[in-house]
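thread: overnight batch results

M.L. [08:02]
morning all. the overnight job finished for the chain we discussed friday. pasting input first so we're all looking at the same thing
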Amino acid sequence: MASLLGQPAAAQGDGQLVLEPKSCQRSRMMNKLKRQPNQGPCARVVLEQVDGNYITVSFLARGSERGSSNSLSLGGTTTTPLSCRLNKCRLSQPLQLELDNAKEVAYDSEGIESSLPSAWPAVGSCQLSPEAISCSARSMFKAEWQAKASF
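M.L. [08:03]
and the structure it wrote out:
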């Protein structure tokens, strides 16, 4: 056991990667309610890996009030995890996520949730590469999400 203490951290693990996109768009359509899509640009994309094979992709956007923000987060599993060390991750090769949930939440100017998170079981996928991320998901309640970013 003592020999493990001096070993470097494993290549896979928990961590986060914050990306500043060149372009980023996301939308939500509630087909059942016949509403117009909730669309808009996003300013940042955050990848968070937990347990080596579960990744959440969050598309963050500015809110309607100064300093506020909102996010669309899509989570799922992958067979090719991110390379993480000391809670910092790299996206060095293409990978695919099989999505199982979607969540939307708004934050006030202090970063505190200003709305209750809305979360749905969802199916879909995300294609992640160092150049771009593209996600598509839908819930059994007829909601659909699309999000794309390029770097």
